[in-house]
Design a protein that fits this description.
The complex is a heterodimer.
Chain A: H1 5-14, E1 24-28, E2 31-35, H2 39-49, E3 60-63, H3 73-88, E4 93-94, H4 103-109, E5 118-121, E6 135-138, H5 141-150, E7 152-156, E8 160-166, H6 175-186, E9 195-199, H7 201-204, H8 208-216, E10 225-227, H9 232-238, E11 259-264, E12 271-273, E13 281-283, E14 294-297, H10 299-302, H11 305-315, E15 325-328, H12 333-341, H13 344-350, E16 354-355, E17 376-379, E18 395-398, H14 401-410
Helix pairs in contact in A: 2-5, 6-8, 11-13, 11-14
Chain B: E1 3-10, H1 17-20, H2 31-35, H3 46-49, E2 55-58, H4 70-77, E3 82-85, H5 90-99, E4 103-105, H6 107-112, E5 118-122, E6 127-130, E7 136-138, H7 144-151, H8 155-166
Parallel strand pairs in B: 1-2, 2-3, 3-4
Antiparallel strand pairs in B: 1-5, 5-6, 6-7
Classes of the chains: A alpha/beta, B alpha/beta.
Chain lengths: ~425, ~170
């Protein structure tokens, strides 16, 4: 009987020939990650274990990205604690403001997470690296502390739910639309404890940035991981980037899966998830015309260069609607620089968007664009729970960068094709 | 020690960790400060009315969303004795076990219990009893490995012993 990709990666990390769904295993961790919210708790727990040094200073990444550049004294103290620990432990992958980026955009960009690896992060969107064919999953701070001390962690081997996307995508439809559609179909707990695996001809056509968007939101369906089998697109992305040698792990054709869905997405419209659940996905036309106050383009879901290119294609020669605030946040310093070189930042500034240094910021209601009572936003972020971007009575509609940019110009939720020609 | 008695507070399905502890309060990890905002975005009046020993009862997928351990920490520090739910999101489930917040999975109990009910919980046996009616429910048992972590009071103590043994 064959094994899925998730099972094979976990078996390898556990030093076993094979593993089965439901089995509890101890796996070796290739990379562990914490941020300025979760690492301080992990550091304090690490101190209680009684080991002096971290298991491997090159396999821990500490990224201050959530409330940075620090929004207040308390968050500055949190980062100070992290920075001190990083220096004391000689953590190689600690990145300061000006060099850092949103963690799940930064780590792949630096080639720190690779196919076939097991990665854990004290951040739920760690599943992003599944796009590279890594088994990557979010854990809590105490789990991170245990990994920092021992380099290992326990896992329950998840069953796999396979999603096969058939057809060809329409213009303005990309990775974000596919994952919002998927979460809408499965529900917020439809893949609870399972590993999602995304395949099919549509995935093969997608660039890495679109794939990262898909894997990033696997957690929003409750999944433990969101894997995409590596192919030439993956290899090309990793060329000159991978920080270590790696081995691609693919599943067996005959591996049993818990469920398999075959979806024809040929005529899929751009998707929008209405408040207050990522599973409230619907075609953009169903919510078109909804008045908005703010648009955010960025985050670990959609702050990469391809996302900014899509937004720029729609914003070029246009202005943000007078009633709307558009905030654009390149996810990393490298994305920022690339966007500058390509002239995208100029397009955004001309369109009267605010451009921010990399930060998670408004995505989790931290800073850089908090919503007041009654305000409505379209965001390329990943969650639209009650109070996520600010006041309990504010609302967030989740969308891809194309719908977000088109809506910023229209002042209402809009399909990108409705903008018409630029005069 | 492992028998708890408390008053029930009811919450619905898919209670996310942003509702349990909004990120606007995450510029600190001080549990006593977090506790002041426990469940605030699910029910703004909750921090003012919860008493030590109370029990949260919720529907499916409790604790979905962010991996913030601040969520079970806030619940524990607010004095909540345990959380009973139809099901838990996986990161919350891990975090609760790791920090020693008792959780019990029982769809039947979650469906039966109402706000204000008094319940008795036997953590060792995984039994839940509604006191006035005497109705009993069995929670889904934890695998032995997780019981071991819980018996040691959380993952840190568990790892501490393991590290000591290997030295």
């Amino acid at each position: 009987m064959g094994q899925t990709m998730a099972e094979k990666i976990l078996a390898k990390a556990a030093g076993k020939k094979e593993v089965f769904p439901g089995e509890l295993i101890n796996a070796r961790i290739d990379m562990a990650l914490g941020n300025d919210i979760t690492a301080p708790v992990a550091i304090s727990e690490f101190g209680k274990i009684g080991v002096k040094r971290v298991f491997d200073k090159e396999r821990i990444a500490l990224i201050p990205d959530h409330f940075t550049p620090n929004k207040d004294i308390q968050s500055a103290e949190q980062v100070k604690l992290m920075r001190r620990f990083a220096r004391q432990q000689e953590i190689v992958h600690y990145y300061e403001v000006g060099r850092m980026g949103v963690e799940h955009a930064l780590l792949p960009e630096l080639g720190l997470v690779l196919p076939g690896e097991v990665v854990v992060g004290a951040d739920s969107h760690t599943c992003t690296y599944g796009a590279l064919g890594a088994f990557a999953t979010g854990v809590g701070s105490t789990d991170l502390a245990a990994v920092m001390a021992t380099g290992e962690l326990w896992f329950k081997v998840p069953p796999t739910i396979r999603i096969v996307f058939q057809g060809r995508l329409s213009p303005w439809v990309s990775g974000k639309d596919l994952i919002l559609y998927t979460i809408g179909q499965l529900g917020v707990d439809g893949a609870r404890y399972a590993a999602l695996e995304f395949t099919g001809p549509v995935i093969s056509e997608l660039n890495m940035d679109a794939r990262f968007s898909i894997s990033n939101m696997a957690i929003e369906a409750g999944a433990k991981a969101g894997l995409i089998p590596p192919d030439d697109v993956t290899r090309q992305y990793l060329e000159g980037r991978a920080s270590r040698s790696y081995e691609i792990v693919l599943g067996d054709e005959d591996a049993p899966v818990l469920q398999e869905f075959n979806w024809d997405v040929e005529n899929l419209e751009p998707q929008v998830s209405a408040p207050f659940s990522p599973a409230n996905a619907r075609p953009v036309s169903h919510v078109a015309g909804t008045e908005i106050d703010q648009v955010v383009i960025g985050s670990c879901t959609n702050g990469r260069i391809e996302d900014l290119r899509q937004a720029a294609a729609l914003l070029k020669g246009r202005k943000v609607h007078p009633r709307v605030r558009l905030i654009i946040i390149p996810a990393t310093q490298a994305v920022y620089l690339q966007a500058m070189r390509e002239g995208l930042l100029e397009i955004f500034a001309e369109a009267e968007a605010a451009i921010s240094t990399p930060t998670c910021g408004p995505c989790l209601g931290g800073h850089m664009g908090i919503l007041a009572e009654g305000e409505v936003a379209v965001a390329t972020t990943n969650r639209n729970f009650v109070g996520r971007m600010g006041h309990r009575q504010s609302q967030v509609y989740l969308a891809g960068p194309a719908v977000a940019a088109a809506s910023a110009v229209a002042g209402v939720i809009a399909h990108p094709r409705e903008l018409g020609e630029v005069k | 020690m492992s028998i708890l008695k408390g008053k029930v507070w009811i919450f619905g399905n898919d209670i996310d960790t942003d509702a349990i502890i909004p990120a606007r309060y995450l510029n600190t990890s001080d549990p006593s400060e977090l506790a002041l905002h426990c469940m605030e975005d699910a029910d703004p009046s909750f921090p003012g009315k919860v008493s030590p020993g109370d029990i949260i009862v919720a529907g499916k997928n409790f604790g979905c969303g962010s991996s913030r351990e601040h969520a079970p920490l806030a619940i524990k520090e607010a004095g909540i004795a345990c959380v009973i739910a139809e099901s838990f999101a996986r990161i919350f489930y891990r975090n609760a076990i790791n920090i020693g917040l008792p959780i019990l999975e029982s769809a039947e109990a979650a469906a039966f219990l109402k706000e204000g009910h008094q319940v008795e919980v036997n953590l060792d046996k995984g039994e839940i009893m509604e006191i006035s009616s005497g109705r009993r429910f069995s929670a889904v048992p934890f695998p032995p490995f997780m019981q071991e972590i819980m018996a040691k009071g959380g993952l840190i103590n568990f790892v501490k012993e393991k590290v000591k043994k290997s030295e």
